[in-house]
Every structure is written in C-alpha cells, then in structure tokens.
Amino acid sequence: MSKSPGYRDAIEEIESIVEEIESETADVDVLTEKVKRAAYLIKFCKNKLKKTDDEVKKILEEFEKEEENDSASSG
C-alpha cells in the first residue's frame, strides 16, 4: 500500500473506486485490489474520525473544567 492519504483524499479515492465499480468499468482482475484498497481507506477514515472525535471531546472537557474553576474562584 502507498503512504496513508489525508482524509479528504481518502474519501475522494473511495468515491472514485465506488463509481468505477458501479459503472462496471473495473476490470475483474483488478476488482479484488480495488475492494481491498477501499476497505483500507474506509478503515483509515473511520480511525481518523474516531481520533478527531476523542480529541475534540478532550478539549471540550478541559474547557468545561476551566469554566468551573473560573466560576468557583469568582463566586
């Protein structure tokens, strides 16, 4: 496999693979490789979204703690 793409590039490649399969222009000999690549890209995107979600939640939790501390010290 090539170097991991960015999220947007991965989505575009998945869409391209899907279009190729749906239009039946994918050569049968290459179809397995296309499906494997699509599965890899889907997993990559899913992991990227999960990591981003976790990071955003962590930032929001830290922000809420700071607000609580600010409220407690000003009250």
Number of domains: 1
Average pLDDT:
89
Largest sheet: none
β-sheet strand percentage: under 5%
**Which structural category fits the helices and strands?**
mainly alpha
| Termini separation | 57 Å
The succession of helices and strands, N to C, reads HH
Unreliable stretches? none
User: How much is the radius of gyration in Å?
Assistant: 21 Å
Shape: rod-shaped
Fraction of helical residues: over 70%
Q: What count of helical segments does DSSP give?
A: 2
In total, the number of strands is 0
What is the topology?
Blueprint: H1 7-22, H2 28-74
Helix pairs in contact: 1-2
What labels describe this entry?
75 residues; mainly alpha; 84% helix
Describe this structure in words.
The chain is mostly helical. 84% of the residues lie in helices and 0% in strands. Helix 1 (7-22) runs antiparallel to helix 2. The protein is rod-shaped.
What would you say about this model in short?
With 75 residues, this protein is mostly helical. It has helices at residues 7-22, 28-74.
